[in-house]
Amino acid sequence: MASTADMPLDDHLRVQGFANAGFFAAQLFRQCFDADFPAPREHAGLPFATPPAHWRQYVAFYKWPDERLEAVGFCNWIRHDAVYLGGGMCVSPTIYRRMPREHWDACRHRGGIAQMLLEAAFAELTDGAGWFGYCGDRKARIVDLRAGFGPTRHAQLLAKWQPWVSDAERRKLEDDIAAIGPF
User: Fold this and answer.
1) Which of 23, 59, 58 is nearest to 131 (CA)?
2) Closest CA relative to residue 69, chosen from 23, 8, 5, 116
3) Crossing angle (nearest 10°) for helices 113-124 and 138-146
4) Is pTM, for the whole model, over 0.90?
5) Cross-sheet strand order for the sheet of 69-80
6) Strand, helix or coil at 31?
7) Contact, 78 vs 50, CB < 8 A?
8) Is residue 45 part of a domain?
């Protein structure tokens, strides 16, 4: 039988989207943020309605040699008007030192679990003008920029745009989203 290290990373790491990933990711979210999981709900504390149908949550799962799946990454997206707002990004603080070296190398080559979560969301959530993140963490910002986000005229607000969005529309959406504050 082949060892875990002999198998490609894609045989062990998958990103999956959910309407509500609480069952899978609540423990990881608690571990990373010491906060309650952002369960999809109508009133999520933002200054606009957040019906559960507007939520999409992504979980990265790692499969261990004993076939056990572990949630090792999470991110949350809420559709607001013409864009998606991302938040709650977290990755297990111990996963990289626990996975086989070959998987760690392959993961690092692809930008890490956080970048893979972002790329999965970008590939699926294509029906809007773009994606926004509100980022105050230096390491998270590096990942966000590497995944395709760019700075906006607002200090902690990042955006990734569909190519068809005009500069004028981008500026308007940036201002609208910045007015929300942290999300």
Assistant:
1) 58
2) 23
3) 50
4) yes
5) 13-18, 55-63, 69-80, 83-91, 130-134, 157-161, 150-151
6) helix
7) yes
8) yes
Contact criterion met (CB below 8 Å) for 120 and 111 = no
In a domain, 183, yes or no: no
The rounded distance, in Å, linking the Cα atoms of 2 and 148 is 36
State the residue range of the domain holding 46. 4-178
Question: How many domains does the chain fold into?
Answer: 1
- How many Å apart are CA 29 and CA 23, to the nearest integer? 11
CATH number at 94 reads: 3.40.630.30
How far apart are alpha carbons 60 and 70 in whole angstroms?
8
Per-residue DSSP letter, 33: H
Q: Give the model confidence (pLDDT) of 97-155 as tens digits.
A: 999 999 999 999 999 999 999 999 999 999 999 999 999 888 899 999 999 999 999 99
